[in-house]
What does this fold into?
Amino acid sequence: MAKIQNAANSTEESIGIAMSRTELFFEKNGKALTLGLIVLVLLGGLWVGYRNLVSKPRHEKAAELLAQAQNKFEADDADYTVALNGDDNGAGFLEVIERYGSTPAGNLAKHYAGICYLKEGDLKNAAAYLTKYTPVKGIPGSVVNAQNYGLQGDIAVDEGNYKEAVKFFEKAVEAADNNATAPIFLMKAGRAYKALGDTAKAKECFERIATAYPSSFEARDIEKYINSL
It folds into this structure.
């Protein structure tokens, strides 16, 4: 019993010492800890305020201007120069990029700007703006990602750079591996490989269309391409 009592006393003393040290720590550092908590609370408040008063309105305004440019881009009589630069009736993609380039709308505007330059035959600026676009997550975004890589591949083909084109087309397939877009870019990759003289890789692309996407439009005449190798 004596040993047990001594052990209990020893434990109580240890707890008491630990508590004393803790109290001493808070006594010495209480002001600093309190200040730290105040700073954290203030930072949290600033973040909420920034998000509600600055970030959210900024994103909404960017989306509004992007919609104006998209309307010009998607019109039946689309004028891609106006879609790029805007007019008295609304903003163009370049304005969205300049003012809100860091927002999701600004990012998408870079992709659209690249397409506009491509439509105008300006491959240099088309490539520059398509490259500025940052791929995004999610199903709708993946289709845009694939289109972006595919267009960069098309530009590389126009410039005779088939090796670079293949890389972009393969990225496009990986970005959106579906029955609608993947066969298109596999076909382009196969043709680029064929232009490079790599018939084995070209055949691999064509055969993948036949086996993985048999119901796609590209699969209808794919045997012709395979046999041509």
Observations:
- The longest helix spans residues 2-74.
